[in-house]
Amino acid sequence: MGLIDRWKITLNTLKSQDRYRNIRAGDGIDFTSNDYLGYGHGRCPISVEDQASLPVTGMGSRLLRGHHPIWEQVEAQLAQWHGAESVLMMTSGFTANEGLLTTVIEPGDWVAADERCHASIYEALRICRPRKYIFKHNDLNHLEDGLRQEAQIRPVGREMFIVTESIFSMDGDLAPLQDIVELAERYGAHLIVDEAHSTGCYGVNGSGLVDALHLRSRVLATVHTGGKALGLCGAYICGSHLLKEYLINRCRHLIFTTALPPLLGAYWCKGIQRVINDNSGRELLFRNVQLFRSLLHDSGWDIRGDSYIVPIVVGEDNKAVRLAQQLWLQGWDIRAIRPPSVPEYSARLRISLHADHTPDCLENLALRLRSIFTEYH
Predict the structure, then answer these.
(1) What range(s) does the Aminotransferase class I/classII large domain occupy (predicted)?
(2) Which of 223, 267, 328, 333 has its CA 20 to 30 A from that of 131?
């Protein structure tokens, strides 16, 4: 079989399984994007001087000509926002997760990861080849079983890590971070938390769940992205001064990647202040969460989680695709999520609530969902 035939067979198999993907521009009312605070409809304004003076390309890695002083300003602002010692900017959330984990975890170390963690985390673990322990989703007993066993047999010089998300992107539920921190401390493990979906939305100033729970000093590192609630391009890692120094010297994802354009740094400086001051946006978001989830509950749905990510699990791939298609034809942009993004037989509609959704819009969507599910049940 030739290469082209192999590609064709793979694509045809995906089509037969209702797992074929294509790229479609966003149209209809947005319940798909991660624009939780509604910033995606317009850019955060920057000064004419910044637009004229800041380069629009990185022109090299940050260790070469790609660095610009504005990124030091951005990292300082972010560190102050999170109450962290240091921050290191990265080009994307995927790169930040993969770069952090593959740099700090070595072959022979032991890593416990929640089974629902993002693909970037599992790709990192594939690369760095630790001894892996995949614990059942948010199952503290299963996690402790692994920690207890590893603590008894851990080789000399090897480290233990726990990796989880604070809000899980496909389920919308929160990790029991306080309990996980306590387990990590009890067994001498280092905790790393992916805060992609909580950044901007949780805590008094929106800095995320780790900070809202006052756990900053008790975790090794957190990973944050600008491409969700903040409406910005890029991502960053929060941790100690020593961790930042180590990453600068050892992280291949920083060393061998062209830096973000300095012009984006001006948007970050403005955007950080915008999100810190946007308590009203966070209040609107969680008001919408309460309203929409109560509407679904009144319609008889038992929906997991309690965040602005609302998964409606339908099971079969073809049913999820069919329901999403019907909603799209009626003006609602809600996408079908299928394996491998979610476990087998748990295809779903993933509904993403935003601060700028109106109560009327949410009520209309709840009615439309009830109608479509009744028709296609």
Answers:
(1) 27-368
(2) 223
With the CA atoms of 79, 80, 81 and 84 taken in that order, what torsion angle do they form, in degrees rounded to the nearest 10? 50
CATH of the domain at 310: 3.90.1150.10
Query: Between the CA of residue 135 and those of 50, 171, 186, what are the distances in Å?
Result: 48, 16, 17
In this structure, the number of other CB atoms found within 10 A of the CB of residue 8 comes to 12
What CATH number is given to the structural domain containing 57?
3.40.640.10
Among candidate residues 232, 255, 276, the one where a domain is terminated? 276
* Average pLDDT over all residues of the chain: 94
Q: Which region, left, alpha or beta, applies to residue 176 given φ > 0 means left and ψ of -120 to 50 means alpha? A: beta
pLDDT of residue 52: 62
Q: Which amino acid is at 114?
A: D
CB–CB of 304/63 below 8 Å?
no
Residues 74 and 202 grouped into a single domain: yes
Q: Is the residue at 55 inside a domain?
A: yes
Q: State the DSSP code for 115.
A: T
The share of the chain scoring above pLDDT 90, in percent, equals: 83
Domain annotation covers residue 246:
yes
Nearest to 351 by CA among 112, 228, 172: 172
Q: Give one DSSP letter per residue of 217-268, joined into a string.
A: GGSSEEEEESSSTT--S-EEEEE-HHHHHHHHHH-HHHHTSPPPPHHHHHHH
- The set of residues, in sequence order, having a beta carbon less than 8 Å from that of 278 and lying 6+ positions away, is 37, 206
**Domain around 286:** 279-376
Q: Whole-prediction pTM value?
A: 0.93
- Tokens representing 178? 């306080």
